[in-house]
Amino acid sequence: MRPSSRDEFSTAIICALTLEAEAVEELFDEIYDRLSGYYRKQPGDDNAYINGRIGNHNVVVCCMPGMGKGNAASVASSLKISYQRINLALVVGICGGAPYPSSGGEIFLGDVIISDSVIQYDFGGQYPGGFEEKTSVKDSLGRPNKEIRALLAGLQAKNTRRDLQARMLRHLQAIQRSNPEWHWPRSADDILFEASYQHKYSSPTSSVYCCLDGKSRDVCKSALDMTCIHLGCDKNRISRHRCDAEKCIPSIHIGTVASADTVMKSGEHRDRLVKADNVIGFEMESAGVWDNASCIVIKGVCDYADSHKNEAWQAYAAATGAATAKAFLEYWIPTVREEANEVQIPLELSAVPAIEEFIEREDDLSRIWDYLQPRFPATRKVAVPLELGGIGKTQLAIHFARKHKDDFTAVFWLSGRDRSALILSLSTCFPRIIGHRMNDEAKNEEDVEQRANQVPQWLALPTEIGRSFPIKKLTQEDVIQLLLQSSGFSAQGAAQVEAEGPRLTAADIMAIVDRLDGLSLAIALAGAFMRETGTSFKEYLQLYNDQWSELQSQAKPTRHYQQGNILKTWTTTYQEIQKQDPTAATLLLLLAYFDNRDIWYELIRGGLNCSHTPPWFEAAVSNKLAFKARIKVLVDCSLVEPRQQEGSFTIHPVVQDWCFHIAASEERTVQLYELALVSVGYTVPRKDDREYAQLQQRLLPHADYVIQREKYSWLEDKVAVWRALSKLGNLYTNQGRLQEAEEMYQRALAGYEKALGPDHAKSCKLADDLASRASLSATQEMPDSMPSNPTAGQPRAVSTLQHSLPESLQKRHVFSRIFCRR
């Protein structure tokens, strides 16, 4: 009975040549479909298929468009799109054989090779001394799964091998009865030449050159197109000759197959690989298939992988290979899976590859597994890691999916960037669910739900949406490891740091680690920039501080992070916030102009004292509820993080740098800096405030931060700025930081004189107040319990303060007293 859908096919046979596919089709017990007329194909699948039955197996034959590893990889990849339940792939056809395997015995034309492993002999590196092969690729390409390896081991037994060969011979005779094309080629004997003897002209003629020098290894193109008989190959160089067809029964050999993207046509090179890696056959497809699926090579020997090739043996070799494949399938009984796993849908993450430098986060992975594991309880669960863009959420999800892919019956990767992207992702997933004819498409939500219910243990991984529990930032140790790996250094500790000299110092590493504060994307991009440009750690930190925007614009997006570099990482989120709440978007930019570690409502609200307060700011801080509503938008997008106990908020330093870039591009820098400066200045407490000392200490980092930013030439009407600067002078005076206090007083006084004139009563009064406060504040505000030797951060003695006053300020103080009495 013909299967109802593609999902009932579990075995694939891949053939490079039409001749090979025809031989396999000859041995089908039943043909179901040809060229996907009934079963159709998924979009993006360009393969040509023949569907049928061989024994108890539903088999799909894939016909490749040509030979070679690239074509094989493309065919195998497309096969997985339409036929997702394939658990056995056979590469069937013809190959070159090793006449004398290192394990002993002989291989003749028409014999069959079955692989128990595959090496890729054109994989390696070109060195000055020549090409160095990495023929230990057996470990890279791997071996078949345990189930197939067990069967191959069983076939090595003498009696089983004899039975396999008898079955192969029976199937070979059946195909030969149907068409004489598959018989032994009586027009060509089985001839093996010496390994060093090349297929080339043996006597000079006027039209050829490859025979002029007997030692030359050049071969004429015309010689390659001729048979040994027509070319006149020297019979004295024949090392083995077999001509009795009646007594020649094909043998089956199991061992290592060598695969490459070129045809092996060198007897000497062949023998070196045979000796070094116990190779028994040579072909061109299995390495490409292995990139996408574990496979078994079953091929008939049509030549000896030397230059003396003869196409006369290809049909017979294709027949023996196909006959052995059918005999092999008669032994193949796949393990019956549990009912839940009978709807297993393979994990497909080719579009989102895992990064090489991923740092294990076992705590986070364990927490996610404890919550999402499908059996206890067997109900729908949703977990959305919440963190800053670039912190590593996507890679964490990829790693979780790869680690637990066998614990779920279906794993789907969905793009949640927007509604259209999500619908597109879902549309590619639902056709993969088994149990329906391919033309029985879901018509409505009920059909979709019915089909989805057939997969009881889903794992869906939508990206770029939602929030739940936060994942942890990388530890300092992990950050250092990621930075060293991505910059081209292996994390081997202090010994290597010292060995690298000035380019790599522990102090420079820690400076970058602290500056990037555990943000995985920023660390990876920094490392990549240093590796690709030869920039030292110290130079990179200087570029980061001095030319942030230019540096980030040159950072290349990694192939593992589709959002791009730092400049682009949060742009999509920011644009969405602008659409949803423009006030919240601008408030985010303002927060960057404060110290990022502790920001609270009352601090921001001080900006209402500006001379010209922008409407968006008034809306944002009109009351505490309005402020929290805007902050919630930013918290939900992971751009701001709440500090619950302190009732304040933090912003990541790299996001802070990004905000400066956005503010500059929107020409908001001066406005935002003014708001921040006035906010901090007008929040400086009076000495009779209840939390006077505590608030001063809390304000000090913000004061330091705003005054170290670029100093702007303020307009004359910015009276609030001058008042804020004078208040900052009071703050620094009370903290004993007289140099900063003097700078603030002088800037404030210069501003007032510029705005109101030097003889204006307010300017004179300010000069008097500034000088008086500077000379008396230490006495007036010194606590009764002030110790005789004050510590850092406490007011200094009056005499010290008075001697520190600038002479110009003291003179102005005297002048203002005289002037203001008039």
Automatic annotation (TrEMBL):
PROSITE patterns: TPR (PS50005)
GO terms assigned for molecular function: catalytic activity
Residue ranges occupied by any DUF7779 domain in the UniProt entry: 577-660
One Pfam family, short name: TPR_10
Record has Isomerase as a keyword: no
The keyword ATP-binding belongs to this UniProt entry's keyword annotation: no
Gene Ontology BP terms: nucleoside metabolic process
Protein name as it appears in the record: Pfs, NB-ARC and TPR domain protein
